[in-house]
Amino acid sequence: MHTLAPTQLLRTAMKKLLLLSLLVLSGARLAHAAPSEASRPEYITRVESCEAILQEFMANPATAIPPSVLQGARALVIVNQFKAGFFFGIKDGYGVILVKKADGRWSLPVLLAAGELSLGLQVGANAIETVMVITDDQTARLLFNQRFNVGVDAKAVAGPKLAEAEKYNRAMITAPVLVYTKAKGLYAGATVKAGWLQRSDDINFILYQTNYTMPELLYSDWVQPIPEVAPLMHYVQRIAP
User: For residue range 41-50, what is the model confidence (pLDDT) as tens digits?
Assistant: First the structure.
């Protein structure tokens, strides 16, 4: 398991806090704003905050994903959802997806929209952080069809955590989507519905300054990583070789 130094944990937590503050201050408008209304630095910060979320999950045995699960991953989705209860109770958020290519390398992180995610006992939480491990290539490609409903379009179960290693078996991790969250009350193998994910080509056009869409960004080598997304790519390659 890869652990983070206290200074690294503080730095990653500050990244998430900064972006969450910006999202809350702007309310639901930011989540639904046209890409031209938002800045490229904001999209870079979204990728960085997803990196911070994954690092925090892996640093804590109570939430860490077992190496055996990561070794079988064909895609990873990291979601940061926020609540804006004082804005009509709207929930919204964003995420990134990375896929593992045929040669074992991980792809660029591609930004997604995410919403309606509510798992376990998270009443009163301002943010809901989730990591999804996709175990086959076909499920990741369902996102090409715009909106993908996790647990409806593909079976999703709560994934076993590192601290539960002695309690799970291979049969438990054969679902197309394994969902990891910090919510209490979820047990490994429980079937879950984890909201929806949706491709955001317009946002990725701005982030990568290209006209290539989600399939090309994930599965081709036509677009080179920008420096800001390289740390997330390297971290995923290290924990899920």
Answer: 999 999 999 9
Helices (H), 27-114: 28-31, 40-59, 67-71
DSSP 8-state class, residue 60: S
> In terms of Cα–Cα distance, which of 194, 121, 122 is closest to 157?
194
- Binning the chain into helix, strand and coil, the percentages to the nearest 5 are 40, 25, 35
pLDDT digits (tens, 9 = 90+) for 152-189: 899 999 898 887 766 666 666 678 999 998 876 677 88
* HEC per residue, 111-135: EEEEECCCCCECCCCCEEEEEEEEC
Contact 181, 79 (CB under 8 A): no
C-alpha distances out from residue 187 to 63, 80, 153, 167, Å = 12, 21, 22, 11
The helix or strand, by DSSP H or E, that contains position 83, with its residue range, turns out to be: strand 75-84
Q: Phi first, then psi: give them for residue 149, nearest 5 degrees.
A: -95, 110
* Inter-residue long-range contacts of 31-37, CB under 8 Å, 24+ positions, other chains counted: 31/90, 31/92, 31/93, 31/94, 31/113, 31/115, 32/92, 34/202, 35/202, 35/203, 35/205, 35/206
* Structure-token pair, residue 46: 């979204």
Smallest CA-to-CA distance from 179 within 187, 168, 171 is with 187
Structural tokens at position 208 = 């990568």
Q: Is the CB of residue 205 less than 8 Å from the CB of residue 35?
A: yes
Q: How far apart are the first and last CA of the chain?
A: 13
Among residues 98, 183, 194, the alpha carbon closest in space to that of 154 is found at 194
The type of residue at 115 is G
